[in-house]
């Protein structure tokens, strides 16, 4: 995938250049611009997408496939301000990606949202892990800057769940409380993921859960008893 990332790290946009006959798979709503010979197909499953379905707040997530017969460009941006990074995978190195961080990928990458190996990994409705397999590259987007880490064999790292972006499937992990119940309730720390290498882990410097909590504090919604 030929990607140029510009306007980062705060407001990154990825421009994917498609050769004649090329295509790219993009999260619905992530397209910022197209240039040249570009046509679009939208789907929620079956065939080319092999049953890709995602749910957030009860609404289905669709994905768009952009194709070009003569060559063109597709600009991709995220909903929240942050950075982007291009990541390569192959058949020996599947990647697990937080659903809100997958923006685009090569057609040779399979994105499976039905994988059930990490149910409850993230707090908050609709956040799941996508299992990305195959051969090609992905475009990850983050809220805030993206921070990669390469763990050596046996090396551990603990990351707040809201800051996890992606990690190699080979990396061992477990989800636990940040500390005691007292620190969890009073200290503001919730669930964390403990990773053990070898393998790659990507973090983001901001948390969408923290953003939601802040909005609720400064703009509380009154509930009606009627």
UniProtKB/TrEMBL annotation:
SUPFAM superfamilies: TRAP-like. Gene3D superfamilies: Mitochondrial biogenesis AIM24. InterPro entries: AIM24, AIM24_sf, Trp_RNA-bd_attenuator-like_dom. NCBIfam families: TIGR00266 family protein. This is TIGR00266 family protein. It comes from Microbacterium awajiense. Pfam families: AIM24 (PF01987).
